[in-house]
Write a structure and sequence with these properties.
about 575 residues, alpha/beta
């Protein structure tokens, strides 16, 4: 830290108690200066030789036949006045980054200018500021911190602006040329960090920790000065904002601190760099945490909307854990904003958006499906509404949605038939992989109609595509939906009349079916009967193989097998 000593005489200021100070001299005190609770017993000549204001105050006191002068509004209070008074006496005083703002403001108040005496206090302070304080990174930060308590004097004297110019200019230098010391512990670094660092070189965000010690309004002024230059990477600015929030925003928000935290959040949001999806530099996790806090501290709606916009741009980077800290209504708003942004893409950017954005769409589709499967507090309406927001292109495969629907059915066994139909209507069984279809075909929680659809379309897919090829199945000819619906209706009516299977017995019976490259697979009795009704030819083929394989059986066994085949075939 830089400092400057003024004067050469020893300190002769003494006190007999906490609030009374005397300038010890051969001459008696002839003026009493009262500054707040402190009383100084001084001499007129040293004061009048350096201060225009003291000349006027002493003149006024003389006219009133008193030696008492009261000063109640001097910036810096009694400490700054004492330093100025000692300077007038020629007593040695030390100026540094911690006290120079107060002394400079007090000297301005006392009018200690060059027209009173050459080499006066204001002049000497200005020389020290330019040659010492503003050349030092740490001193500039410290001095800037002291200006807050001395407003408006520090603002009027341009001390705040000069400190900000000094700090911002140093932030913008090439890191390779830095020769001064700075703080770079990164104790608050975490998974949200944005700037990658090499331990062998000075990082681009070397300045962040020191600047984050500033009060929020001063921090805001520094960052605006840096941003306005256009020379700082937005990723580094985002890192500074993330670190500031981690440094000053408490883990739990108390009601009495809500007001100050509200101002902090609103300021940080106003400083967030945001251009478009490809150039939104803050991590989604950080933005979602900030959004959560914004609701807790009650920020303005415009601020919340701005945050929602930012989160919408980065939604593809979010995790399910990030979304689960929010109410489903807010998640709905975020997804809606994301979808709206997708629709705003102009035709000129369509190719670029297709190339770069397809992965974004798929990521969001997977994210929301995983969120639907993980959030146990969803209602049927909120589940359906949120799922409906996802564009079709975001779900080329419906396995994730099927898992979410199955989880919801597990959590809500009380759903009515119509509610299950509404829920399962979100899913296109033609977009299930063979693994998901196999699971769905045996899923007792699914409505009968859905199981029929799964079996029907899986069989058609097997006829039109190489068996087991998911990639080929996505390009298979679309099966005749009308025929499937007709078969579904027939099977549902007959199942109601004849099958009468309980939930317990549905999964307990199984038989072998000949589809699939991996060999025979077990199929529950309900699914088997449905399959044979829709595709009787395949059933006959399977039964023929059963007869062939069972030719060594006893006549009784063959008779029983034949009877069983006739029963399965007669479901009509």
């Amino acid at each position: 830290m830089k400092f400057m000593k003024l004067g050469s005489k020893p300190d002769t200021f003494e006190s007999d108690d906490k609030f009374h100070k005397y300038a010890v001299s051969d001459l008696d005190s002839d003026v009493t200066v009262i500054v707040g609770e402190f009383t100084f017993y001084l001499h007129k000549f040293p004061l009048l030789s350096k201060s225009n204001r003291m000349q006027r105050l002493v003149s006024q006191a003389s006219e009133e036949n008193t030696n008492d002068i009261t000063i109640s509004d001097i910036p810096g209070g009694h400490k700054a006045f004492e330093i100025c008074a000692k300077f007038c006496y020629g007593i040695t005083v030390t100026l540094n980054a911690y006290n120079i703002t107060a002394v400079r403001c007090a000297a301005e108040y006392l009018e200690m200018t060059e027209d009173v005496d050459r080499g006066n206090l204001i002049y000497k302070i200005e020389v020290f500021l330019n040659s010492g304080i503003f050349r030092s990174w740490k001193d500039s930060i410290i001095m800037l911190q002291t200006t807050k308590s001395l407003l408006p004097w520090s603002e009027d004297l341009k001390l705040v602006a000069r400190c900000i110019d000094s700090v911002s200019a140093k932030i913008l230098v090439n890191p390779e040329t830095i020769t001064w010391s700075y703080t770079h512990n990164r104790k608050l670094s975490g998974p949200d960090k944005i700037v990658e660092r090499d331990e062998n070189v000075i990082p681009k965000d070397w300045w962040v920790e020191d600047v984050c010690e500033l009060e929020i309004d001063l921090f805001k002024k520094v960052l605006r000065a840096v941003k306005s230059s256009g020379r700082m990477n937005n990723g580094v600015i985002s890192e500074a904002l993330r670190y500031y929030v981690a440094r000053w925003l408490p883990e739990s928000i108390e009601s009495e601190a809500a007001s100050s935290n509200k101002h902090l959040v609103e300021t940080v949001v106003s400083l967030l760099p945001r251009v478009n999806r490809a150039m939104s530099y803050s991590t989604c996790s950080f933005l979602l945490k900030l959004l959560k806090v914004s609701f807790l501290v009650g920020v303005d709606e415009t601020v919340k909307e701005d945050l929602v916009d930012n989160v919408g741009l980065k939604l593809h980077e979010a995790s399910v854990k990030d979304l689960l800290i929010h109410e489903v209504e807010l998640v709905h708003r975020i997804v809606d904003r994301f979808v709206a942004d997708e629709k705003r893409v102009s035709e000129d950017d369509r190719y670029k958006e297709f190339v770069l954005g397809n992965g974004v769409l798929l990521s969001v589709g997977r994210l929301i499906d995983a969120y639907l499967a993980s959030n146990r507090d969803l209602t049927l309406s909120s589940f359906v509404d949120l799922s409906d927001l996802i564009p079709e292109a975001a779900r080329p495969i419906h396995d994730g949605l099927y898992k979410a629907i199955d989880t919801f059915l597990k959590e809500h066994p009380e759903l009515t038939k119509s509610e299950k139909k509404r829920l399962c209507g979100l899913m296109d069984v033609r977009k299930l992989t063979s693994e998901a279809s196999a699971h769905a075909a045996q899923n007792e929680r699914l409505p009968l109609r859905v199981v029929v659809q799964v079996l029907y379309f899986e069989q058609l897919r097997a006829n039109h595509s190489p068996v087991g090829s998911v990639a080929a199945s996505s390009h298979s000819p679309i099966p005749p939906v009308k025929k499937a619906e007709e078969s579904i209706v027939v099977v549902e009516e007959e199942a109601a009349k004849k099958v009468g299977l309980s939930k317990k017995s549905r999964g307990s019976k199984s038989t072998r079916s000949g589809g699939g490259a991996g060999g025979p697979q077990l199929m529950p009795s309900r699914s088997r009967r449905i399959f044979e009704k829709i595709w009787p030819g395949k059933g006959e083929s399977n039964k023929s193989s059963e007869v062939s394989s069972g030719s060594s059986q006893s006549p009784q066994a063959k008779s029983s097998s034949s009877s069983s085949r006739r029963r399965r075939h007669s479901i009509s």
